[in-house]
Design brief:
This is DUF4173 domain-containing protein. The protein is an all-alpha fold. It has 22 helices and no strands.
Amino acid sequence: MPENSEPDSSTPGNSSTDASDPTSTPRPDEPSDAAPTSPTLTTDPPPSDSPTRAAPPPRRTPHVAWWVSRHTDVVFPRSTLLSALAVGVLGALCWRPADLGIGLTITGIAAVATVMWSAPDDFRRRLSPYWIAVMVGVVALLLVPTFRAAGWVTVFCLFAAVVASAALFVEARGIRGLWLASLSPFLAPFLAAVTAVRRPPRVARTGTRPSITLIAVVATTTIVLLVVFGALFASADATFGSLFKIQISTDAGPTIAAALFSGIFVAVVTLGGIALVSQGTDYPDRPRPTTPIWAWATPVGALFAMFLLFLGVQATAWFGGDDFVRRTADLTYSQYAVQGFWQLLIVGVLVIGVTVSAWHFVDADDARSRRAARILLGGLCIATLAVGASAIHRMTGYIHSYGMTEERIFGIFVELLVGIVIVGFLIAGARMSTVWLTKSIVVAGLFATVGFAAINPDQRIASYNIDRFETAGKLDTFYLGGLSADASGEFDRLPADLRACVDWRFARDHDAARSWRAFTFSRYTPPAQADRWYDEHCVRHVTHR
């Protein structure tokens, strides 16, 4: 209230108003010494002919600012802060960004378990059994670093675990849920920092004696400041360091810095996850769309027509074979196959965005809108599946000609993930309901990633390329030796001279002396002299990829 505003005489809780109101009835046991006053006449304001502006309707769609403000109102109990700090200490001991092994598994499982332990009981009750399925998949992905040595597989599994956890923590449902889930990993550190410093209001102390907590905070802050700045000064100036007889080992500096970074990062991520699940996320019912059907059907129909044209050209190239491609595109069939794979993969990803955006304007209560959605969006999704099949066909043809690599097998897997999402869209369109869609896609994608790690991609790559060598006599030993230890089980199939070439590359690129944090059950130690053996014979087996 501004300083020059008058108190509201109609407020029942205003003591001055109650005392001066002659119409109020005094209590029987309370004498009244106030002199009677004449009643104050009040008149209603004259009617106005101008229309009264209605109050704006409440915002129905939760936006990011609302969501952040809701979650920053959380006050963490001390036990929650201590549990996040304990996970941070564990991360400082067990995990380093460069060590992808058992340490990452231990730290990740501890962080996820702490978040779920701190979640409200209502959260687990409302989302059961969905949260159980997600947690089983996340733990399986976090076990991958312990059983797989391929760093690219570990990173992708860790990314999938973060995405699935974010979707669970914000209770992602529909377009808005996916939007918040995609932003939550970036907002979680901010939420953790804000909520960590928020404390409940305390009653002011009447005495002058400081609290034990305040004394501990002041003492800890003083010691940390003196140690940090004193160590910096001592390492910068030998004379200053000699005053305290401090000997700073330059080798310990990076180790301490890495441990501090790992511990702080893990603690912040854990606290951010707790902040996400602490309040929950409310998704109001979607308002009925008012956009006319033609407004969204026109661009979707035009895009659908272009898809049909593209598929017609693709069918001609498929049945025409290498001769047709040479005449029309002046390319070999293998060059033609690989030329558009990544573009078609991007097409599938973009169609997901187009479908989600168009669905927002579909009125499920209108028969014409439902019919248009099933024809146009359903046809677009079916055409996208056909385009995805074309992309996979292109890549498999290229793999047959030039061999399998990590990028090629990963591209095929991502195309399959896109197909899973598109199939989910088709089922949702047939039922005209998306209530279960987000959860189904999250669980299906989660366990598809677990399956991808379970097939051991690097071993599949080595097996395929060695099979190709046995039939066609072509092998890139330099690339084969660059694979992880997951592929080492296939090296025994090679002749001795080629095996030596592979071992030379493996010994050159893989450090045998690694920390225990990077331990994995998939290990391979090449012969002792492998890093010195290399001659022109290996060069002859480095083929074009």
